[in-house]
Amino acid sequence: MFKRIIPLIFILSFINAQIALPTFQAVHKVHNTNTQVVDYDCFIGEYNEIKYYKNTGDNSSPIFEAQSGSDNPFNSASVGLYTGPAFVDIDNDGDMDCFIGQRYGDILYFKNTGTSGSPIFTSQSGSDNPFNGVDIGKHSKPSFLDIDNDGDMDCFFGERYGVIYYYKNTGSASSPTFSPQIGSNNPLNAVNHTKRANPAFVDIDNDGDYDVFIGNEYGNIFYHKNIGTSSSPTFSEQTGSNNSFNGEDVGSDSNPIFVDIDNDGDMDCFIGEEAGNINYFKNTGTSSSPSFTEQTGSNNPFNGVDAGNRSVPRFVDIDNN
Q1: Which residue of 136, 191, 199, 306 has the fewest CB atoms within a 10 Å radius of its CB?
Q2: Of 33, 41, 80, 46, which is closest to residue 57 (Cα–Cα)?
Q3: Is the pLDDT of residue 124 over 70?
Q4: pLDDT tens per residue across span 212-233
């Protein structure tokens, strides 16, 4: 169930966002994992850039400070329009790389040619980009996860007309080859919640497999529980009180992402939206039975942050601290 809370007095600081998207994994220390204690930083895709907010607090009381110039590893990068970044160690070399969906549907790949603590993102083209030549359609939004539990990262894409595409990694953990899956081979083949599908994968009920929440153009959040297994998912839509976000409307183009931001062992949720705000819903339930309570004012670490149109935050420990 959803409960809105008018802030009492808590002490916390944070930030903002714009258009972007993706996901995570335990060994890669990205946002959707609850198996490692990490200090999450935040990148926010928006109209024509990717903003970087460094966590200068800690893993339970984060403070996000905007980084500019050379302190932002994407400062001079050409990232397209309405960018949707997704961080993943795609070549299994111990640091985070980045794929970026954008307005015209193609997928940009920035390989980390630096280190796990000091990244340098270098654009890859042609055959060096495993998605070279792939056109998802407008406003592509990649999300990486090992959906079939075979030890390598697969990819789902949301797009403008509500379709969610699935690209299975038929290569390896260090040398990926992505093959489109259609029909019944795509576990989200029949799912469409009108325009602008924004999927966020997370094991929300702590049963060892990935579930998925999907934002859409109208600000809704839909929940599809995995009633299959960690290697053969079957997603079943949950409605009414079975959807923790039932009735919630954050504004147009909702973009949810999940992260244990307060290090209490359960997944919290941040939701970007068209006006550029970042909405924070703290999990006041448990890791297996979540209850999301909206936090406002100083209880929201992104209070006052406006990243511009269609904000989409992405969390990753980019400096390995």
Answers
A1: 306
A2: 41
A3: yes
A4: 999 999 999 999 999 999 999 9
